[in-house]
Structure prediction request, 1498 residues.
Amino acid sequence: ESKALMDWDRWLVMGIIGIIVGTVGFLIHQIIDYLIKLKWELVKNYIQKGNFHMTWLYILGIGLAMIIVSSGLVVFFCPTGAPSGLPEVIGFLNGASIQHIFNIRTFVGTFVSCVLAVASGLFCGPEGPMIHLGAIIGYGLSQSKPKILGMNLPSFTRFWNSADKRNFVTAGAGAGIASVFHAPVGGLLFTLEEVASFWDIKLAWQTFFCCMTAAFTTDLISSSLCGFVYRGQFGFFKAEMRILFWVKNLLDMSVLAFVPAIFLGILGGLLGALFVFLNIRINRLRMWFFNTIPKTSLRKTAKLLESVLVLVLTITATVYLPYFFHCTPVKNLPEFEPSTKPENISQPTWHISEYNCPLGTIQTGPDGANYSNRSFNEAAALLAENGMRGITYLFRRGTHEEFGYASLFTALVFYFLLSCLTAGSAIASGLVIPMLYTGALYGRIVGLILVSILGVQTDEHSAWIDPGLFAAVGAASFFSGVSRLTISLTVIMVEITNDVQSLLLIMLAVMLAKMVGDWFNMSLYSSLLKLKSIPYLDAEPFVCHRKKWLNLELFAARDVMKLHVRVLHVRENIAFLAQLLANTSHSGFPVVYKSKPDQAEVFLGTITRLELCVLLENEAVFEKETTEDSESCAPLLSYQKIRVEKLPNQQRMTMLLGRYTTDPQYQQRFINLEPYINKSAVSVQAHFSLQRTYIIFRSLGLRHLTVVDLQNQVVGIITRKDLISLQLEEKLGLQQSSNQLHSDDELLD
Amino acid sequence: ESKALMDWDRWLVMGIIGIIVGTVGFLIHQIIDYLIKLKWELVKNYIQKGNFHMTWLYILGIGLAMIIVSSGLVVFFCPTGAPSGLPEVIGFLNGASIQHIFNIRTFVGTFVSCVLAVASGLFCGPEGPMIHLGAIIGYGLSQSKPKILGMNLPSFTRFWNSADKRNFVTAGAGAGIASVFHAPVGGLLFTLEEVASFWDIKLAWQTFFCCMTAAFTTDLISSSLCGFVYRGQFGFFKAEMRILFWVKNLLDMSVLAFVPAIFLGILGGLLGALFVFLNIRINRLRMWFFNTIPKTSLRKTAKLLESVLVLVLTITATVYLPYFFHCTPVKNLPEFEPSTKPENISQPTWHISEYNCPLGTIQTGPDGANYSNRSFNEAAALLAENGMRGITYLFRRGTHEEFGYASLFTALVFYFLLSCLTAGSAIASGLVIPMLYTGALYGRIVGLILVSILGVQTDEHSAWIDPGLFAAVGAASFFSGVSRLTISLTVIMVEITNDVQSLLLIMLAVMLAKMVGDWFNMSLYSSLLKLKSIPYLDAEPFVCHRKKWLNLELFAARDVMKLHVRVLHVRENIAFLAQLLANTSHSGFPVVYKSKPDQAEVFLGTITRLELCVLLENEAVFEKETTEDSESCAPLLSYQKIRVEKLPNQQRMTMLLGRYTTDPQYQQRFINLEPYINKSAVSVQAHFSLQRTYIIFRSLGLRHLTVVDLQNQVVGIITRKDLISLQLEEKLGLQQSSNQLHSDDELLD
Prediction:
């Protein structure tokens, strides 16, 4: 029973992570909304007079100021923050070691850069960076030594190991999504499906708590503050505010609705694959171009200039496109801010979507209801407002002809291309909102086509022919087409729309989009991982050589292992150790042991570089005599001390190693490694099938795997890098082309 | 790219499983509803006249007929069908081999037994059996050789292996839940969280498809048929029908609502733990009692009589309890069948919940709306109707005082005790509906207390004080308190109520209930697994000795391994093999190999009993000469033939083994096992920590793990049974008490 209790500190940390991530999520959204509002308030007068040029100048000027700071931060202050940090987090959780992704600099840089980038008007969202921020918070809180006012707060040293580190990062990432979407379960599942490589039900259940806390915190703070002004409703959660794209009227559905859903699913897969293809192509081009610039400062400036260029394009499209559209009268919708106070009724406030349309008035009709003669600009509503608001418009039911083909198509083309260009430029930006938005646009077009053919239906049995419904289905399909998510995406869609009724449609579209997309290429995140050369190990190995899948059962562990392993002996010379550490960068070494002088040396276990470093730092454990019988004279280092997963000071270590190598007295000193070896280290035999080797490596979450022969003698070692598909392709491809497939008989020689 | 295509048959099978499970789910619900309606129609006249005794006689008589068939089927026809089959499915997916759970007899027995048990009026639901039925369908479709009209349909022999078997069973089980709850994502997550022990994203994604198909099929058939009568709306999915307990008005929520939610969570944990405790206690008592009966037929009859007794108790409570309650006038609710045709308005049909209340009439008022002076009996609505309908009443919002304390408390006490008694008796029954129902009852009581204190609130800010809301929270909390589910439960609640707004309340209650419950005991399913002695391996080992958790890092693989392993040689004598197979029941054997005559025999790989049997059946592979150099003369058996995981005919095998053992010619025959060995079989060294050994065994999904020493010689073997916690407790407990903790120095001797 005490097992659960002993874990209280873990729950505490999870709770704190949730609260802080929730607060950060609230801040991001509030600041973005506030800045956007401020920006457009400034140009309100120009735009109402139809002065597009001045509007352009102002909006671009403000945008430029923002983007220079945003991009500058990423480029000069924290290079790892760009673009969304999500692939890096995924790689880290898979076991790759990536520098600087979890420090305070990256946190500040990502936060500010993301806020400013979204506020500047670029077609991007804050979700990707939010996941990264959540992960940083999870890492920071569990792995740091907090100090407040010079006092050392209790730090959670027992979490300073890779497993727990991963767990907290996973929870933090989930909380990030939970907070921005008000979707605790969706966030949790997103992390489990896409972000985390290792997880079990215990971690899921802690992440569940963390996500809940994050969503609760965001809701609680949002309930009382709107644009940083106290609204006097602290602790009152309105469904309107909580559910991002609340669908109020569920539609009874005909089975015929599955036909357009199938179409949308396929379309989503095609467009999604195209998006991934374009994005990766653009990113590759970008990398190539920047690599041609030799000087670092120049290269960085070029990156900044690229963001500026994207902004100029975006702002130009945003400001001038509405010029070509007429004003559409507002029927009952779009509804404006629900918090509008009744006293404003006669003098309605201006909204971005009204753009240069004549300001309407609201009159109270004879039956007490309010009537308005407002009108709005379709293109402004779709492009000038931020993506979130746009999605709300598109998802709305019962607004069959609010948006016409022209505005939808225009927005689709510009949004698709510009968001593809934006993702990957040197700002911290996310793709979730653009993905939902692009999908919603073509979904609504399909809905509109149906309405055009069949007319606006009011009959109960045909109510499903509603562009709002298909906008939601389309959004899910495009999201799936790009990210290839299934379960978490479905749950997120339910959580943000509160529409279980169209669940089956969404599931179908999501499934088809993933299938069609998978036909063409990998998901965006996988492609980015590959592009960034992050060593990521899939759950199962897929190796392709000359367009043919290789069956790894036909290869053996020996085909990929590194030969000439540096092995250690149980009793090892200090000078030798120091030399080894100084000259290699391996992170682990097999230790061998000879029980009788005439026997061969067999594999006993492994020891990591870190453990060796800690041992070498403590001269007390050295043994002075070389004789075999004085084994137990040196004191042992405690488990606690060995276990802490922080590298000792790098400089001191180098100095120490140098001394050990050169000072002749250490030639005569030895260390007994036996108490510190990981004796439960798995090994595989050289003839093990490569498939099995990969599965063992991946499912046990190893970093190095010793390869032994039938007599348990070390013959090679396999590391994470040997198993990434690129490496496998190369090694195995070479072998296959020279027809050197090992026959199994060889084994018994 | 072709990898995805090659899997088309897998998707096909998944789809077919979904369609069939969906149809079965539809049938179960329809038949149950139909039978219940029929039953009560029969006694309608008696009950309307207030003749309780005759009602009791009739209802009991019909119930008895049903329960005798239901229980008789389970007891005499398919012993494994009882009670819900869920623990057996969980055990199977964990790797335990359990006989007869996936055959056609069990299917028929479970189906009929479940339908009749629920229809008879027992306090149980069809969900547990539905999961089992789904699993059987998944197993049957993928593993059988279908024959229609004497024609052999193409069978999917490539799925005849344990991994795929498990995958299809998992998908089928998920589809079962998806179908009965119309909750595709919930079903999927339920399977992943509770049912499946091994899964990856690929399986999740196939299960997703299977669940979607199942939910779609159920919806599609339900849309056109209601009580087996065509309703003329084929393919029209009404939200009313699809969303089981649809909450139509979302409530804006105050943060104060979290206080009762916390209370409900704790209460759910306490009551859930109590329920598990009682249920296990009763089951143990039951087992003990039945085991005292020596004669099988008598024991079976006793089991049947027990079910009859439970039924008598239940029916008596159901029929007579409403006698003590007055009629409550219907306000606007409960709404009756939405499919009621307009022409019935003036002469409303009788409903079970009206019981002996005077039949009301509906009049059309001056404003065109319909007014009714109907009244209903609270206890009848809660107890006499089936649980599903009861939950609908309890979840309904805006019906603050529809049910009073008296009826709620009475129903709670009876339902809690009787459902606890029912679960485990010899019928196929599920606990999901009873769990939701019990929780909804006390949740509503808590809500009612709030209403009593604060009054019925109509103010926007206090609208959350609604007993319907807390009924839903309570239902989730009790479900979690008993089953300890978290993620899947939350998603199921959203899918069956379409209320994302109260998600945070539900999450909080679920979390607390699980925490409090875990404090007292294990989840019901884990307890049942233990009670039924199904060898289940948790993801992580928890071994408790004298109320203290043992740290398995302190023990080694050698502490639990079986000594005196029967090893085979690469070249083995037929007579010896036959003898070995005849005399042991081991399912796998290590194969050893000696490369040079003077060397020790080292571990090379393993071979399973099944493979040996297949080999022995094919005399062609035997080698006649004992000389070493004639190795390659015997033909090889193809991989396909060896791989098929079906045991050859048992009788033939026994006969064959007998002949091989006795006939002297086989003493001189040999078989070269080398081509058939699994050479990628993992082994651990005897000094491996037990924790690590367990993790390796569990995460690689092994059935037997060879233990070797430093020279790679076989010293022992570990099987699944050696690792279940009971076994570990015994072995390690013994060791600890005799203080024989191995010191690590021993290793180096």
In short: Chain A touches chain B through 95 residues (CB under 8 Å). The CA atoms of residues 10 and 297 of chain A lie 44 Å apart. The first strand of chain A starts at residue 147 and ends at 148.
